[in-house]
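re: ur question from earlier - yeah i can do the single chain one, its not a big deal. heres the input i used so u can compare w yours
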Amino acid sequence: NVWTEQAHLVEVWLEKDALSGIFENILRPYGVTLNVGRGYDGWDSIHNAAQRYLTWGADVTVLYFGDFDPSGEDMVRSLRDRLYFFETSPEIVKCALTAADVTDYHLPPDFTKPTDTRRAAFVAKFGDVAVELDALPMDVLQARLESELQARLDLDALRLVYEQENADRARLVAALSAAA
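and the output i got, formated as tokens:
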């Protein structure tokens, strides 16, 4: 368990199920949990997350990756409010997709959905440009995820956990070989 030596719990929440495999490959070596929301998470998922955070105690960060559109922007607020309902208040950071990403990477715009009830507030703040998370170049998205993780984890403690795990595995293999 890599978390026994970490002072800070980090989880990644992702709006897009289609990107989950890419995220899992990056998260695996860090032992970080990925929560794929497929839009707004259900109350069961929120409750389970709140229980993890309450068990951990203070110092929890959720790294959020979602679309830059009315719902994608509102999901961060919704997540914060619904976790607070269960008496937990992790830091929630929207890592991507941001208005700056749209501009900096010249991402292909789409128009906001006229049926989205959050559209008016979004258009007033950002204009009528919406962009899907997967429009961000994959290498940029992967590098962003990696840098956000490395900025928040104790990498020396993580290395020590893996070194201990490897030493334990070697001892077990030697013991099993000797017994055979």
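The CA atoms of residues 21 and 123 lie 32 Å apart. not sure if urs matches, ping me
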